[in-house]
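As a warm-up, study this chain.
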Amino acid sequence: MTSQTQKQQLFLDKVLERSSLQTLNDAQRATQIVFRILRDMMLNKTSDQIEKDLKQRAPEGEREVIDLWRDPNIMVAFFSRISPVQNLHIKPGTFMLRLKQEGALPEEVAPEEVAQAVFSATKEILPEERNQEIAELLPGEIRQIWERA
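Now compare it with the structure written out below.
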């Protein structure tokens, strides 16, 4: 296990505990996809502010959540930054389909439960005003999952 994985483990352990995912790799991949979809739904300035909040507020053992927030796919990250299309309106069904497919979730794992686990662990770090800002971006069922988390 690399030191980077060990640092992420506390945050990812929360995702594992709160979902039926079985491995750290599954939790890491799912978290990165949830974060990618969230970033797609916001302006760059909002995403940058969330990253800044994570840097300032993440407990020592959870600092690697910052790396999880950043897209590990360099090309996707680059094109997302320069795209004139930001603040996408992603429907709840599309959100869950993307999480299931891009996150390669096991068949028996519900994407709603994984989203709630990632949301819950993330909300513990972010300040209340940022949590509210994110909630306002989310449509219907996704917003309900965020608020329950």
